[in-house]
Specification:
The chain has one helix and 19 strands. The protein is an all-beta fold. It has a single domain, classed as AttH-like domain (AttH-like fold, Beta Barrel).
Length: 314
Amino acid sequence: MGDTDVIHRFGRDLDWNESFYFSFYDKENDICAFMRIGLKPNRQQKNVFCFLMMPDGNIIGIKRDAPFKDTELNAAGLVFQKIVPEKRWKLMFNGGLYSLFEEGRPLKRVSFMLDWEGLNDVFNYRDCVSAEKELISKKVASEHLEQFGRVKGLLEIGGRQYDIDGLGERDHSWGVRDWTAPRMWIWLTCQFSEDCALNVTKLVVDQGVVDAGFIHLDGRNIPIMETKIDTIYGDAGAPESFEMILKDKFGNSHHVTASIVKKAIMEFPNPEGHWISLMHETLTEYRMGDMVGYGIAEYLIRERPDIIQITGTP
């Protein structure tokens, strides 16, 4: 066991970024959460989002920039604390989250203290991406680690308490992060059980396509080398379902189908105003063989601002 979860030496690019992301789904409570702290020291920013998808279909959350004063993973009430390198984290929040689907978007008082424990060895995308593909992805945080795990703890929303127990994913990346550089990316996570999970990325940029990820079977991470994804889109270009074939390092193919259960949308405008990227962050139900699992399906789609209409954006 090492410690790859450190803050790395800053690059010089204005959009150099160090990002930590966590998500989970508690099936019994039907609560899905996803959250991120990204350090952008050269822009003097910490980028933060934290969202909860609730059982009644409502979404509560925030997305904002906070001043960059230090490299602590602490901003806008959200805290990520490393407990054991590459194994255990504590996720904490204390503050207000906006109720996005209620009239007037009232602020809800929210707090949580959650323990995150990894269930597999940290997976490095370098295990399935060539040097050529690494160059293609250099504007989208080419250094990239993934791990799935279990999340337990207490969540309180407006005085109501939930005992959280679910499975989820964490993501750590560093390098240049320009949200509007890709034409599109698809980032998928699914946890079928404590013994079986998958993570898939398909990145589409002007220079080409990069496939990456892993499937965790029989106690090991197996690199994904090639991915075919067929997506059905609904209103406003949002994904509704998809089907994919994953080809792993050993030549085996894995057939997966998926349906979107809940969705949120976030905007990431280009600083020069030429493009805007819409990120569809969704809770998704996956099926592989006789297994059913849940996780995040994230679709980032770049458009020109003059040809899109944005509705219901947090």
